[in-house]
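Hello forum,

I keep getting stuck at the same step: I have a sequence, I want structure tokens, and every attempt I make locally crashes halfway through. Rather than fight my setup again tonight, could one of you with a working pipeline run this one for me? It's a single chain of 292 residues.
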Amino acid sequence: MWVNGVLGRRVLHRRGTAGPYTRHMAFALTHPLVIPDLHGRLDLLELTLAQYPQAHYLSLGDAFDRGPQGLKVVKKLLDLHDQGRATLLMGNHERMASEGLRWYRQYQQTANLTDYRKAMEGFRWWMQAGGETVRQEAQRHGQVLTLETFPEDLERYLGLLRRIVYVTADGAVHDTLPDQPSVMVVHATPPKAHPDYATPEAAALWLRPYDGPFTLPAGVTFSVHGHTPVRVPTRLDDQVYIDTGAYKTGVLAVLPLQTIERPSGLRLLQGEGNPAESRKLASFGEPIHLET
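Reply #2:
Ran it on my machine without issues. Output:
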């Protein structure tokens, strides 16, 4: 569990472009800052770190695949975790990446060809769903990505991931539901029993807003999610969705959990990309007020 100090004051260096996007501000912050699906956008992660240098970063998962620098994003997140400055959650892309590896490590112990077959099936599943971009990134650096040569940093990252955390008003991050009001943070949706998934926690990596309604545990004031790309950060009932398709749009929404009563302080950070791509994304619920 990480416990923060007192919420810091905002430090303004200089203002970037007009409109809702933020480019060159820095904010002193000691409560957790939720970062949604980066999908290999190291530049957007570094922009976030520059503008919130004192935050505890709470990554919603889907750190790699699709974008060009997934392995470097993983390395940066590992460094932050090792410094006690980041909490790392699993996304569905991390879940896919871990499937083949899990069976391969079991095969190394059992020499059972059924385990090896499952390992190869899991690896192909990941490659076809976005892992090919990670393989190509490794190749550009003279590395071969297979189950036999799986990157050490990526395997360690996958082993550190949590499924669900809760953030209380003091900024503490809890692995289990605390006995005080909190915000739930989980990749896709709140946990829900679903016939396609073994557990509600497994479903929470894959479900979409339209798979609701969802019921939050007593004491949880709202929940925060990525996974479903939205045109603008959106609130639907007591769920908040902040994945703005950053790997294409260049627009990354970040949400400081400086209060647990309601989502506040949300900002859009603009990097390289095409913001017009957001017009193709889902639109539902109620747009969340943006800080400028």
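Confidence is low (pLDDT under 50) at residues 1-25. If your local run keeps crashing, start a new thread with the error log.
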